[in-house]
Recover the amino acids of this structure.
């Protein structure tokens, strides 16, 4: 799963914040809100192996097509996102449900 740039992550998170109050109005498709997203173990390991990482944070963001997605960042022991130029791993592109829904899950 590809990482995204910090600029893309910021733009998507801001779009979500600016739009979230009206998301559930009828002009939006029910498919814009995922039930869940799945990320690979290798991607998560790469994220949390960044120097200084003690946890990770999930942001909710909005793509250009208005679908909501999760963006993951590493977090340091001060509770700050690790956003170091040239060394930042910001993760997006999880497998969205729908359409990629598990048959045995918290929601089934």
């Amino acid at each position: 799963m590809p990482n995204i740039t910090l600029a893309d992550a910021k733009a998507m998170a801001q779009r979500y914040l600016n739009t979230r109050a009206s998301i559930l109005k009828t002009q939006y498709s029910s498919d814009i809100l995922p039930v869940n997203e799945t990320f690979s173990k290798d991607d998560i390991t790469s994220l949390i192996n960044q120097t200084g990482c003690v946890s990770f944070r999930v942001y909710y963001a909005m793509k250009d097509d208005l679908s909501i997605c999760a963006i993951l960042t590493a977090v340091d022991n001060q509770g700050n996102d690790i956003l170091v130029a040239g060394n930042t791993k910001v993760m997006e592109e999880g497998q969205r449900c729908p359409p990629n829904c598990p048959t045995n899950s918290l929601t089934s």
Observations:
- The first helix runs from residue 6 to 19.
- Residues 3-97 form one domain.
